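Q: My labmate handed me this sequence with no annotations at all. I'd like to see what the chain might look like in three dimensions before we decide whether it's worth expressing. Could you predict it?
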Amino acid sequence: MTALISLHNAVFNLVERLGDWLMPLFARFTFAAVLLLYYWNSGLTKLGDGLFGLFSPSIGAYSQIFPKQLEAVGYDVSQFGLLQWVVVMAGTYAEFLLPLLIVIGLATRIASLGMIGFVVVQSLTDVYGHGATDTKTLGAWFDRFSDSVIMDQRLLWVFVLSYLVVKGAGALSVDAVLRARHQHAQD
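A: Here is what I predict for the chain of 187 residues:
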């Protein structure tokens, strides 16, 4: 029995050491595979036409972020002020920048924390702004279904992002290169 326990411990000590190296990379890969294009495509729907569209959001941007307020002003975005423009542009840029930072592993903990906030705001906007309260979309935890968009899927997204907040980007990342350069410079 002692030999079996020793074998178990040896194998899983190795798995744990490899996991410390591989899991952050796998978390970033998972984020890229599942969410990178999702957020980039969402960001693209918010940009206006042409080169100046980078600074002039589409009406779709306002309808996604401020659905009830846009309806209240008769879909006339000129009725919105600077605050709404700043929120829309910050949200749009965040959909491009934060996922990119996570995938390349630069400022990963901060970018992941920002994405968690983004997912929370996105979910609250879906529920309170767009009225996504049907059982299929909203879902519930601890039920027999695992396919709801908000409660189930986004909890898994937040878990992957939380892992990156806690563990960082891992050895194969820009963060690791910068950390090594910083340590080398201090030696």
